[in-house]
Amino acid sequence: MPTLARFNGIVVRMFFLAAEHNPPHVHVYCGDQVAAIDIKTRQLIDGSIPQREAALAREWIAANEAALLEIWETQQFKKLGPLL
User: Fold this and answer.
1) Which of 30, 45, 73, 76 could form a disulfide with 53 if both were Cys (CB 3.0 to 4.6 A apart)?
2) pLDDT in tens, the chain (84 residues)
3) HEC profile of 26-64
4) In sequence order, what are the beta bridge partners of 2?
5) CA distances from 49 to 61, 67, 69, 71 (A)
């Protein structure tokens, strides 16, 4: 599972499409906790992470939505910048 970004103790990853399912989402890791967050709605799909980190992850997803959806569709993984 490629790592797309790391910032503020958060790691954002995406599985290869063959191993995944819709809706398009990312997996957000914070310590030993993990959550799946929908790219388009930024709603929590599964798991849990602390509220502060979830808010930061949602902000990062919003800033990178177009790139994330392109990665989901093309499976051409690339590193994305941290939350500024």
Assistant:
1) 30
2) 799 999 999 999 998 766 667 899 999 999 999 999 999 999 999 999 999 999 999 999 999 999 999 999 998 999 999 988
3) EEEEECCEEEEEECCCCCEEEECCCHHHHHHHHHHHHHC
4) none
5) 15, 23, 22, 23
Whose CA is closest to 64, among 19, 24, 34?
A: 24
Alpha-carbon separation of residue 3 from 29, 80 (angstroms): 10, 9
Contact of 60 with 76, CB cutoff 8 Å? no
pTM above 0.70, yes or no: yes
Joined together, the tokens standing for residue 66 give 């177009």
Dist CA 12 CA 2 (whole Å): 9
